[in-house]
């Protein structure tokens, strides 16, 4: 990694909002500058604008290749992770661009950032200095090599295994990712009191619990209703993980996060009630659905379910703080093109499918309903096993 000159930094900042393809076409206007390299910085800053504002707003921050920015945590998810653990020493064994390490440094006296890619490690180390994170030590090493030479003991080891294969395919099984956490578990427990593991949202939680064992807590973390990561806190003394508490978290930039904690025992013991659609209809956020609080949610909030497998809820009175989206049900229709279009003067609606035999694309093709507008249609199955369409507006 090299430092950019003042002229190069000025070019990056001046063109931060510009089209990168156009910038490359205009490269001949700047014969004294390495335009291709600088355009890569512009491109990375554009990708990181919403995700990493602390880095983007610092004029001297340096960014790695765009893929490393895409794979890094957002600041909101990193800050949430850092709130879950604290202590004297945390070692981030898969440090990457360093966003997680930066936020862990606010919860720990010392953080060690370990990254096997030398260029990426140097970029992260440089930015730590710029951003004033003086309690982070950055080391160029693989996770395995570091563990074998590390003679101390950390409070927490953090891992976010790489989920890209040699041919850039996406991976999600623990044994396919790098490093192989399952193989490393005995060594990890020798080197730390606790392990915080981030996995792909695609990995089945039940499977992960069985493979990892010793899981004390699970967090499913969504950002604005999109699941970004699943976190497992492991301790050697943790009991069998089947009933480890699960916390579903939906982070929202301008309001308090939506949080629900439950256990599998509570989910299995819940006795939901069922009803036809009442005045209000509720759709749980993505974190709750991934965590599997299908029965418990309705009982906990005293809501009725529409069907065991629809995962939509209803009530006569509005529950304003439902962890998801709230709707007012304007009516219930059959799945009939003419009947539906009569309800939609502009022939537009937002369509969601829950426990319904057809996809959104199929429904739009058959009915001609265009996307958009203020009406929300839920194509689902009711408690009488009948396919129905709920015609709703936001409550």
TrEMBL record:
The UniProt entry, under CDD domains, shows: AdoMet_MTases
Lineage of the species this protein comes from: Bacteria, Pseudomonadati, Bacteroidota, Cytophagia, Cytophagales
Pfam families the record matches: PG_1098_Fer, Thump_like
Q: Which InterPro entries match?
A: PG_1098_Fer, SAM-dependent_MTases_sf, Thump-like
Question: In what residue span(s) does the THUMP-like domain sit?
Answer: 324-394
- The PG-1098 ferredoxin-like domain covers 280-323
- Species: Pontibacter anaerobius
According to UniProt, the name of this protein is: THUMP-like domain-containing protein
Domain of life, per lineage: Bacteria
């Amino acid at each position: 990694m090299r430092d950019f000159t003042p002229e190069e930094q000025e070019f990056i900042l001046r063109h931060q909002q510009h089209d990168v393809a156009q910038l490359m076409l205009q490269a001949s206007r700047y014969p004294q500058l390495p335009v291709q390299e600088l355009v890569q910085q512009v491109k990375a800053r554009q990708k990181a604008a919403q995700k990493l504002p602390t880095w983007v707003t610092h004029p001297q921050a340096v960014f790695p290749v765009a893929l490393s920015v895409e794979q890094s945590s957002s600041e909101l998810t990193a800050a949430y992770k850092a709130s879950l653990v604290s202590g004297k020493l945390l070692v981030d064994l898969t440090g990457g661009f360093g966003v997680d390490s930066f936020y862990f440094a606010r919860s720990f006296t010392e953080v060690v950032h370990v990254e096997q890619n030398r260029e990426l490690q140097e970029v992260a180390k440089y930015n730590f200095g710029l951003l004033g994170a003086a309690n982070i030590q950055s080391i160029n090493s693989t996770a395995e090599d570091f563990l074998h030479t590390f003679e101390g003991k950390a409070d927490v080891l953090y891992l976010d295994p790489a989920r890209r294969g040699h041919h850039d395919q996406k991976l999600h099984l623990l044994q396919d990712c790098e490093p192989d956490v399952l193989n490393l578990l005995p060594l990890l427990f020798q080197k730390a009191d606790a392990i915080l593991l981030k996995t792909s949202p695609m990995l089945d939680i039940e499977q992960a619990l069985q493979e990892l064992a010793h899981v004390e807590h699970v967090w499913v973390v969504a950002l604005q209703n999109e699941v970004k990561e699943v976190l497992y806190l492991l301790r050697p003394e943790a009991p069998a993980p089947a009933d480890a508490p699960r916390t579903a978290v939906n982070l929202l930039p301008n309001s308090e996060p939506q949080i629900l904690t439950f256990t599998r025992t509570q989910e299995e013991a819940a006795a939901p009630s069922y009803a036809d659609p009442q005045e209000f209809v509720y759709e749980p956020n993505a974190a709750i659905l991934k965590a599997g609080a299908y029965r418990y949610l309705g009982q906990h909030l005293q809501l009725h379910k529409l069907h065991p497998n629809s995962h939509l809820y209803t009530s006569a009175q509005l529950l304003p703080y439902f962890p998801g989206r709230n709707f007012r049900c304007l009516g219930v229709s059959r799945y009939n093109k003419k009947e539906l279009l009569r309800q939609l003067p502009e022939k537009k609606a937002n369509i969601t499918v829950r426990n319904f035999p057809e996809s959104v694309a199929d429904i739009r093709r058959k009915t001609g309903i265009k996307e958009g507008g203020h009406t929300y249609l839920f194509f689902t199955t009711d408690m009488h096993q009948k396919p129905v369409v709920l015609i709703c507006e936001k409550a």
